[in-house]
TrEMBL record:
It comes from Paracoccus cavernae. Residues 1-27 form the signal peptide. Pfam families: Rhodanese (PF00581). Keywords: Signal. InterPro entries: PQQ_CXXCW, Rhodanese-like_dom, Rhodanese-like_dom_sf. It comes from the Bacteria. Residues 97-180 form the Rhodanese domain. PROSITE patterns: RHODANESE_3. This is Rhodanese-like domain-containing protein.
Length: 192
């Protein structure tokens, strides 16, 4: 039996079938906002469950893309400039999956208004507003930006979401080629 008042109470509650709340450490709590989006330490081990949809591997990604799925790369960019015509000036090339579309500012835990507009406008264009279109979301291995984006797509109402949690590295490790990718152009949305 438990010793001390707290363990004894927890044991009694567990035996009674009451759910137990396991508080996050202070450091862990600072990594998430109140709505569950990861807001810090984006390059860290990710969960083995998707926040929505399901996890897929490289071979499934290839099959889904062959059936018309949108491959959505959300590897983040912190340093960039945007031209008057909506093009992106980036400091270095980005290698990604052939046929993927790169939205480099939509995976952060908290989006500015123009970033949310960019995500919404881009997805509407890329899916033809079909909320049942298959979307495969990825970034890099151990990257929470894709996890956040999957959560965001689910909240927006997309029903066929796949999380390729291994991302670009898992694709290359499976023997597939990578290609240089430019960010998808901005439409009406602009950073302020």
């Amino acid at each position: 039996m438990s010793k001390g008042p707290i363990p004894a109470i927890c044991t009694a509650l567990a035996l009674a079938g009451a759910p137990l709340f396991v508080p996050l450490s202070h450091a862990e709590a600072l990594r998430f906002d109140t709505t569950g989006y990861r807001i810090a330490d984006y390059r860290a081990p990710v969960p083995d469950q998707a926040p929505a949809g399901r996890i897929v591997g490289a071979e499934e990604v290839e099959a889904l893309h062959g059936r018309g799925a949108l491959l959505l790369d959300v590897v983040g960019l912190r340093h960039f400039r945007i031209t008057d015509d909506g093009g992106w000036l980036v400091p270095e090339p980005h290698l990604s999956l052939p046929g993927a579309v790169w939205l480099p500012v939509v995976g952060w835990g908290q989006l500015e208004g123009w970033q949310q507009d960019y995500l919404d406008e881009s997805l509407a264009q890329l899916t033809g507003t079909d909320m049942s279109k298959s979307v495969v979301v990825f970034c890099l291995m151990d990257c929470w930006l894709s996890w956040n984006t999957v959560k965001r797509l689910d909240a927006a109402g997309y029903s066929e979401i796949y999380w390729f949690s291994g991302g670009v590295e898992a694709w290359a490790d499976a023997g597939h080629d990578l290609v240089a990718l430019e960010p998808y152009p901005l439409g009406r949305s602009r950073p302020e």
